[in-house]
Every structure is written in C-alpha cells, then in structure tokens.
Amino acid sequence: MSPEQQSKPAIEDVLALSPLQAGLFSLSEMAGDGLDVYSMQFVVEISGPLDAAVLRRSIAAVLTRHPNLRVSLWDQGVPHPVQIVPTQVTVPWREVRTHPDDFDALALAERSQRFDLRRGPAMRVVLAALPEGRHRLLLTAHHILMDGWAIALFFRELLAIYGAGGSADGLAPVKPYRNYIAWLAEQDTAAALDTWTSYLDGVSPLLIGAPGTPATEPVRHRRTLDAAETSRVLGWARRAGLTPAAVTQYAWSVVLGRLADRTDVVFGTTISGRPQSLPGAGEMVGLFINTVPVRVDLRAQPTVLEACTALQRSSARMRDLGFLGLADIARAAGTPNLFDTLFVYENAPIGSATEPVTAPDGTRFLPLAMESLSHYPLTVVAYELDGELIVMSESVAESLGPIDPAQAVERVLAVLRALPDAADAPADTLDALLDHEREWAARPSRGTPLPAGTTAIGLFCEQARTSPASVALVADDGTWTYDQLHRWSLAVAGDLRSAGVRRGDVVAVAPRRSGRTVAGVLGAMLAGAAYVPIDVSMPVARIENLLDQSRADVVLTDPEFVDLFAGRTVVTDWDGGDRHGGESVEVSPADAAYLIFTSGSTGEPKGVIGTQGALASYARDHRDRVLSVGRRRLDRALRVAHAWTFSFDASWQPLAALLDGHEVHLFSDEQTRDATRLVAALAERRIDMIDTTPSMFGQLSAAGLVSGEPGRPTLTVLALGGEAIGPALWDQLGSLPRTAVFNCYGPTETTVEAMVARVSESPVPTIAGPTDRMSARVLDSRLRPVPDGVIGELYLTGDQVTRGYQGRPGQTAAAFVADPIRSGERMYRTGDLVRRNAVGDIVFVGRGDDQVKIRGYRIEVGEVEAGLRAVPGVREAAVVVVDRPIGAALVGFVSGATNGAGLDAAVVRGELAQKLPSHMIPTRIVVLPVLPVNRNGKLDSVLLGESARAALAGGGETGRPLDEVEERVAAAVEGVLGTRPGPDDDFFDLGMDSIVAMALVTALRAGGDEIAARDVMAFPTVRDLADAVRRGERLARIAAEREYGEVPALPVVEWMYEGGRWRRFTQTVLFRLPDGCTDAEVVQVLQAVLDAHDMLRSTRESGVLVTREPGAVDAASRFWVIDGEPGQQLGTLITIAARQANEAVDPDRGDMVAAVRVVPSGGGDVLLLAIHHLAVDAVSWQILFGDMAQAGAAVAAGAPPALPAEYTDYRAWSRRMLARSGTEVVAAQRDYWRSQVRADDPVIGSRRPEIGRDTWSELTSAPVLTDVAVTAEILDRIDQRIGMREFLLTALTATFASWRAERDQDPSTGALIALEGHGREDATVGDDIDTGRTLGWFTTVFPVRLAAGTTVTVDALEADSGEGRRLLERVTAELEAVPNRGLDYGLLRYAERDADLVEGVEPQVEFNYLGRFDLGVAGEDPGAWQPVVDLELNEHLPTDPEPDLPLRYALDVVAVVRATDDGPQLVTNWRYCSTVLSPADIARLSTLWSRSLSALSSAEPPKPLE
C-alpha cells in the first residue's frame, strides 16, 4: 500500500506554539489567499550518481526524527492555537526536468504556492533534473517549522542519512523541540513583561510604511563596504569592545532616526532564541528565533562611542528576555504595533550549510541559496562575508512608499564609515544624507538678480510708458488703457497726499469691487504708501480691527460706505477721468507695498507686510515662468481674468499681468460666486488665462470650462494655487491639449507664490521648485536637511520673503528665522510638510499644524488627504477634524471626475485601508459632486466642518446601504449612545464602556437579536457585530425551564446585612410619563416589568431571599398617585413621593418595588420608581430604562407589552458565584487583598465612621461642577485603557495626598479607596453565563490602595505636567492589576471570613463613577418612559432613603457626566458624614479636586495606545 493510501495517522503529541510561531500563524491567516512571505526555500546543487529514492527516504527519516517538522496547526475549540504532531506524514515530493534558465521560475512558483498550516506537513520537495546529469534539490518549507540555524542542522542530518543509505540509525538521539516549548512555559513571563514595559516606557510607535500583508515578493538591494573600509570600521569596533552587530545596529538607528525625524527610535530585530540554559538547544531542529523590539534614544549618551556601548548592553540584557511574543510585548507597551522595520545582523548567511559535502557514493551536494523573506515594509540585513561587510535591504514596494530602500542601505554604509572618526563626538554629528542631498540643500537660488531699486509700482509705471495705448483693465465700470490707468492712479495718489498720506503710511482701499479698486491700489503705492484691502461686507468689528492694526487713517471707499469709517479721513470722489495728480513718490524695494491679513492662531487676524521689492521679484518670475508661455503661443498680450478677492494676496496673480503689458479683466462679485455665470463671462470676453483654486476649478470645469465644447472658453494658461491637487485632477490637467497648467504654491508671507510646477512636466502632483531668486529648504524638527522621500517642514528664503507681521514682533521672530546656509538672511517657516521625490521635486503633504491625535497616534491630516486623492476615481479630497468629547474624529470628503458619480464611499474606504493604517481611516467618508468653496475660491472649511459634524451625527458612510441585521445593530447603538454609527465605527470611539455594552445587549435582544455582552465588547463595529449576530446561536436558557427558590447571599448582600437597619435601602429613579397616559396603562407597563425580572418579585423568608414565579406580585398593589396642589412645586411633590415609596418598600413582606405617579398642577407627570437595592444595581437600571421604554411603546400602540426573559437569573448567578469560594483561583488572590488593607490609613476627618453611631441621616451632599471646557479636555484624553474611572481616581489620589500633606499626615500611605465594580463578570464565572438582562445586586465592593510609597500633590501636578502623566500611568497600572476586577474580594472577606481581611483597615472613602448620562440626551428633554436627567429635579430625591442605615464611609464620592446646553459636564457629588467632616473640610477637598482635574487634563499625555 502506498503512503497516500494509508489510514489517517494517530496523534503522537500536542505542542503549544512558540512566540514567533504564534505570530507567523497569525500573519498567515491575515494574508488569506495572498502571498505568504514566510515560505522559505533551500536550494542544493547535486552532481554525481544521485540515488533519488534514497534521498527521498532520507528526507522522510529526518521528519521521523523530528516530530515538530510533521505538525499541523489547529485553532478550533482551543483557547490558543496548538501544534498537532501525527505519528507519520508523507512529505510532498515530485521530480521534474527543467533547464537552469527556467529554475528560478520553478522556485517562484513553488514559493507562491501557499501552505495550509492546518494540514501539515508545511514542507514540500522538488527534485529537478538538469542537463548533463546534474540535479537541484528545492526544499520549500514554512518558516513556522525552522529557522536558518535549523536549516543547517536539517541539511547536515539529511546528508548523513543519505550517506548511510537512508538509515538514521547511526545518528545521535535528537534533542526534541518539545523541550524548548516546555522551557518556554517555565519562564517568568510576568517579570519579563514588566522589564519590557519599563524598557519601552514612553516610546511611541514608529511606523514608516503602509499597513497590510505584502501582495508581491519583497525586493532586495545589496551594497558592500569594501575590505579596507570593513577592516577600518570593524577594527575600531573591536578595539572599543563593540561587536559588529552593535555598530551596524547603531548605524541603522541613526538612519531610522533621520527617516522618521525621531531621536527615540524603535525597530525590530531577530534573536537566535536558543537559550543557553536549555541542554541541547543548539542541536534542536525547529523555530527558535524571535522578533523583539530594540529601542535607541539617540540623545541619551554624550558621544557616539558611549551610545554604541549603551545599545550593546541594553540589547544583551533584553535578548535574555526574548522568549516573549512580540504581540504580548507590544500590548504591554500600550500599542498593537510598535514598529514596521526590521534590522538583522547575521553572523553567517547560512552557516555551515554553505559548505559542499560529498557522499560516500560520490554524489556532491553544494548549497546554492536560502531564500527567507519578511512581511515588514523594510528589513535591513547586515553580515560579513569574505572580509567585506554587506548590507542588504528587503522591501515591500507597495508598502514603503517614497522612501528608497537602496538609499537606506547607502545611508547605513555612510554612517558606518563615519563612526570611527566620530566616536568621541556627539551623535548629532553623524549625517545620514547622501552627496546629492547635501548638494541640493546648499543649492543657491536661481534667476538673475533684479536691477537695484526695482519696485512693483516702478514696473507698472515703466509698462505704462512702454505701451500707453494698450488696454490695461476691463471692468463693469469701464475700460482703461495703460496710460489712462496710470494717470488715474496718479490722480488718486494726489488725492491721498492731499488727505495727509505720506511715504510709509497705510491706506485702506475699501470700494465695492470695480476698476476703482485697482486704481486705489496703484494710487496708494504711487503716493508712497502701502494699501490694506477692506471688504465692506465684513462685520463692522472686523473692519475696525483691521484698520486699527494697520494704522490706516485714510480710507478710499464709495460714498455709501462712509459711515463704516467714522473718525477717519475718507476719500470718496476719486473716479477716473482726465485728471493729473502730479508725480509719484519715489519708493524703495524695502518699502511696504501692502498689508494682507491672514487668520491668526489666536483668533485675531495678523497683517503680513509685503514689500515693493518682494512683489517686483514675484512679478518678474511670473512673467518669465507663466505669462511668457501664453505670450509665445498667441504672439500677443493675454486677456487675464481677475476673479480673486482683493483681501487675498493671490489677487496679485492677475494684477502682476499689469506689470508685463497684459489685459486684466476684473469680474464682479456676483460672477465670481457663480461658476456658471463666470464661465459664460470668460467665454464672452475670450479670456486666455485665469488663476483660481483647485476647488473652484472643479466647479468651473463642471460648468464647462476647458470642456472643448463650442462656445465654451478654451484657456491658454491656467494657474491653480491655494490648495493641493490630487492625482486624478493632476492627470486631467496634464492632458489638456491647448492649456498650459501651473500649480502655484506660496504662503502670503512669501509673496503670492514661491514654488511653481508645470503640470505637464511631472506625472505626479508636485510643487516642483522655488521661483527665481528664492530657495527652498526641507528641514526636520532640528533644522537639518531631510533625506529624499522623508517628510520635513518647508522653509523659504530669498527676495520674496516679506517683512513680517504688522505690530507683532514676537510672531515675526518665530516665523521668520535665520537661514543656516546664507548668513544674515531670513527664512520663512511655512508650517507646511513636504517631501522631495526621486527627481528632486517638492511634493506637498499637508499642514504641520494639521496634526491630530487619533487613538494615541499623532497623524498628519494632509497625509490622509493625499491617501484619499490617490484612490482611483477620486479627483478632490478634504479631511476635516471634528473634536468630540470622546476624542477627535476624521471625516473625509471626496469628489470624482464625474461629479462624484461612480464613487462609492465603502469602496473608497476599502482602497484607503490598503494604503493607510486603521487609525488614519476617517470615521466617515462622504461623496460629494464637488467640494464647496468660499469667496476666496478655497475650500469652504466652515461649510465642510458643519457637514462633517452632521455626517458624524447623521450616520455613516454615504452610499453604503446597510443590510437588515446591520440596520438593527446601528439603530440599537444609536438608541443607546445617541450617535448613529457608520458600518466600521468603533463603538468605543462613540463612548461605549462595559455598562453601556450591556444596555446595547438589551436593546438588541429587544429587537430579537440574541447576543452576549462579551460579543459586543469583542466586535465593536456595526459590521462585525452584525456578523456575530448571524454567527451566534440563540441562547438556550429560557424562562420555561427556570426554577425559583432560595437565593444565597452574595458578599455585597452580606455586607449590607452586617450593618443592619437596611429595610428602606432603596434606589429611586424618575421617569417622564407620556401626555394622556392613564393609570391603567402605567400599571400595565409595571406589570410587564415585574413579570420579566425575578428579583422584582422576590421576598425574604426566614431571613433568606426567595424568588417567585411571574404573576406573584400585582403591580396595582405597588402603585399610587400623588396630586399636586396649585402652586405646589414639582420638586416638593417628588420629595414627598420618595419618602412614601421608601416607607412602602419592605423585602420581608415581598414588597421590593414602589411606584408613585406624581401629578403637578401644571402638567408634566413623572413616575417615581423606588426599588430595594437587593433587586437592582446601576446596570439593572440600564436594563430597566430599555424595558420601560419598550413596554410603554407597546402599550401606547395597543399591543401587549411582552419583554424578553432573563437568561442567567440572579439565583443561578449567586449559586455559581459562591461556588468559586475555596477554589485555587480565589485563594491565589489572598496575599494581594491583604496587602491592600494592611498598612495604616490616616484619618480623613475628625474620626473614623462607626457602625451604630453614624447613619445616613447624617449624610450631606456637596455637588461640584467641573467646567465644561475642562470636562471636554478630560474626555478627549480617555481611551479604552485609561478610561474615565482611571482618570478620576488619579485626581482623587492627588487630592488626598494634598489633603494629608496640609494636615501634616503621611501622604505616602496612598489613597485607600473602596471601589465599586458592576460585578457582572460573565466570562469569568462561566462560558454559559449571560447576565445581560438580569436584575439584581451584582455589585462588588473592594479596597484599592493607589500610589502608595509616593507623594504627588496638586501643587506637583501643576508644577510639572510630566508628574500627571506618570501618576495617571501608575494608577491605571494599579487598577489593571486588580485580580478579576475585584470580583473575588468579597468571597474571601465574607464567604471565607479571612481573618486578615476582616480585621484589616477599612477604607474611609468610597468612589463610584456612574458613567456618561450625556450620550443620547444632550440638549433634549427625555422622551416618554425615559429617565429624567434634570440634575435640579433629581436633587429633590432624598440622599438618605434609609435614614437609619449605618454609614460606612466618611466620604462617598459619586461622579457622573451629564448633558448641558454647552456640552458634557462632569458632576461630582461629595456625600459626607457631617459628624466626621465639616463644610469647610469639604470646601477645601472640593477645591483640591477641581485643581487636580484641571492639572491632569492639561498634563503631558500618556503614551500612545494604538
């Protein structure tokens, strides 16, 4: 019988996965059917009398010796994937004939064929017969089986067995791989993780490539350091006590730091992973290597040598802890991805496996190659071979983007060459630039200097003399030749001089848009003054601000606008005509030409002072670069459209044509704001050129501009500026047959445009290079030139740099900095991020101040916009950042070449996800016909911002219909959170926490969808959760099989019983009743709720809780009405009703519920529902909220109010919970809990509370309202790890440290606080548990001691923002360390009566965060059957429902986020024992609390988490 016919083999062993095996399995799964780069190959050239059958048996014998090479992986029904070892396998083997030239194709085909890791073995062999009796053995195996070291061992054994005729009998016994797996299980992973966490503390992820698995094989680039240089570098290293690995790794660190503009870098490296403490590890065949992070702080050491030494030491230390999985290390560091580059130093490429071996039969085996790839965008490998140091890159082209991997290798070599000479110098002296980059950085400006004294107004006067009869200006109010316009402008200058204007003054030009505007601009310059344009449609306050800042005392305007300029000299009679104004005032290039106001970061506009020389230099470049193209084509002057607002410096793009003899056509406001009218006017006037923005061009193009249709304008020259151009629009512009298109870039501070690109000269969008007499510098954060392809900030220097900001010396000094190349010259810091591409052109990326933090990652909005523009079919794109209390969100807007037709938001998102990581994908993507523009022709950011907010509120990606299940999920989320999610929105981003998740489960089940709370947490998007609903099986626990009876007391119930006097211990909530609702309908709703929840029907019999069947309690017997008297306040009625309801509750009589309808005389009835705490907790109320609304809606519709049953009832939960008592998992927590209550806790008030002495009647409340702005900052800082509870407890810790320090107590004892948890840890108690609809008292109360051993006061937080970050991280870590979220403390304290816990220190403070009550109700009154969230109304509910209940705490701090008209607001209720603490004490504590919150909200942010 052949091997293929044998029966299925038995299982010999089951092994866990090593860390890297687990990672490789995950990567293989993520790759799906795509390329799996971890298929490795080993090629052996064979000559001589090969016996193929013996060779095949020899390979089988190797697999027999090494069981781990036979494995299949399995991940179904097990907590973690495992390796299943069968007793035998057959290695796929085939023999082929081929030619050497075709062998590479054969190898590629084999490598491209994926392994199914669930069906081993992950290995196959091809024996290729070549001409002349030669053979090649091609072994393809998945890396999950072996590493390079193991390959050498495999080959050695294979040849030994072959030499023995296929017998392995003569070989030594193997050292099994399972010994290594066992060794891994014995390691102290917790301690190792702590060390890794400390090692990586504060480091940010370093990702330079795009996400995803490779679609094509990585490409390699290899460079060599010659023997002499290698000897010099490595000789220096040896003398310095450094290994080759350390120096090459450091060189890569320097290069990576320059590529990422980081001084604190992190990358991956592979370690051998063969522990010296494991006997025989060096002889084991298997996968031992592991990938671990390397962190290098390039500024931590004073010299290069010390930095190399420090790196070598830290690498050695962390190498010993390299047995952890990379995912575990990254998770401990707070991020899923730490790095996406890998550096490897190989002591030998293949090791001993490279040596030829001759078998006894004369067959010669010569290893040729070993192919092993990586999935990282960039891997750098270094090794020494034949006395030369070789550095090789392996890169994924589609992931790495503009960074050249071959150049990366060159940079590593350049740094290596520099190391010996720079050993004693600071690390900053090392330069990763290549020669051509240094040359570019030092390149002088191009263009001929202008003649001395050249001014813009002088160029106009010269043009008027050269072509006096030529038409200069055409507007609705007239046409003027150059001579006429010149004479008119001179007359205006005379009027201004008569009005007192002198050289250096500023004149306000404020007529309606007309020829008068141009004459006013030129007239002001001829008078020796600068002009400031004033748009009379602006608000009066804005106009006054501009006039005050510019110190403009004289105004040129129209008669109807005189009242706007009261108190200033106003000139209105300055129409054109045959007037003579005399001579112009001589000005110099340094004189101011204009003041153009731009938006300021403080909200107040700032005026940029443009000079005559700068404007003249721009105008001459514009003539030579742009206007000359049209003049040459047409052999005449151009008709140039002026459609810019004069308030924008781009107004000089068309005005510059007046300095070169062209004909400027000024279009009216009405025309410039209507694309259709403007296109018609352009055609009517036969315009040759227009300057506009890409956004405005999109509208003009849609209206027929450059369409080629009869009657439509055909431009000779088109200049675009003010915004970035996307790839689709760039391609369209480049293909225009009769139009020369220019992309113009330039901030106002560098005079109109300082960089210009001819679109047809580049296949990709670019701003090319600087204008004549200007230079561009692309610098990193430390003002060093950046390498090619790396993002840096653009600095501009040269003749077009303006003077600065009017009256703002500080801002001028910050923005206009010293040029490091040209001594004595200034550069303007644009704030724009760019990169230089391979041909030397500058590519615009985005604004440097458009950075936003999403899920802990700081991203550039411009990079997201560029990614959107790169999506096929997208012509224009914009991304808007929307600040929300739950964190910033991105909204993307796109339009296509055909007005958005054919674009699908979901498809755009999918394409973008192939280019950018998940945190850079916009929350919403909206498809528009065209993007809106403002009056300046730029993108209308205000309108886009409003649209973005509407998109977030209105739900999801447009054009992406939801299926039926997804629609139900989205509606449920909207009902719970108040925000409609898109298909891929993360619910955590919308404000979900574990309590809200349970409410969402309730909402989904109400719609008939069965889901568990843990599934909501695991699948927090509409699409994923809908899939979980479809996949999930309906829960089998239904009410028909339920048993009723005694309920054992949980620890929290025992805690209550311990103090006694708890009969009226209720929780009370107000509900808004619908208008016209009858008492009978209220009772019907209440009955449905009572019948749906066991604990509402429970009673106490002989001191034991007992549940009863549905129907056991008549809702009518628990309901009554209170009618208000005329003038009686609703709040007064609520207090009366609450006292009555509390008195009517008695568990011993089975009266768990009391319901009172409160009817004020003015209408607006409310229902007061009081329930004993035995039957409800905070989560229970979330369930009840949904039930009341659902039942109320059913009754209103005339339908029976059927509610879903509970699944795991409270009785079953209590039994399962108490069954944990005495188990090992609970006992193991004993020492932890003892440590929390062992140390002293200095008294907070005058004494400690005492049972039997202090009662709830002495409880007093003092609400503290946190400012809405501070609340917003707090909410902006929280995420899935550092949530609101962690933040507030950190503030409370600092508050008590300060309180104790002020009272001369020891603040270092930490804050001992009693915390409440919701207690519904379903997955911990059992896989079959689901309490998503169960009512009862699940709450856990447990002590935590926070920040013990340290003292961080409020003063310290305010003095050092880093203290806040460190304290927040510490408190968060301590809360994360609480075992099982405090679930089992009560079992040890009450069920097992642990003496140390019973006698331990009792917390004096309890803290409870109730959650966010602003979601879904902000700005709205509650609907029918919804809880009343009005804080003032709820304050009429008694704080002491059971006045005689013992008071266990001196202070009970309860926090909640409520909705206000101004936004979410944190409200903290300080409930205190008035016999222990005084109002003055609480006032002081409240002050410290508020200061703590404020200081923490502005503290240094915690390390990124995602």
Automatic annotation (TrEMBL):
Residues 960-1033 form the Carrier domain. It comes from the Bacteria. NCBIfam families: AA-adenyl-dom (TIGR01733). PANTHER family: FATTY ACID SYNTHASE, NONRIBOSOMAL PEPTIDE SYNTHETASE. The lineage of its organism: Bacteria, Bacillati, Actinomycetota, Actinomycetes, Mycobacteriales. Pfam families: AMP-binding, AMP-binding_C, Condensation, PP-binding. Keywords: Phosphopantetheine, Phosphoprotein. This is Non-ribosomal peptide synthetase. Its cofactor is pantetheine 4'-phosphate.
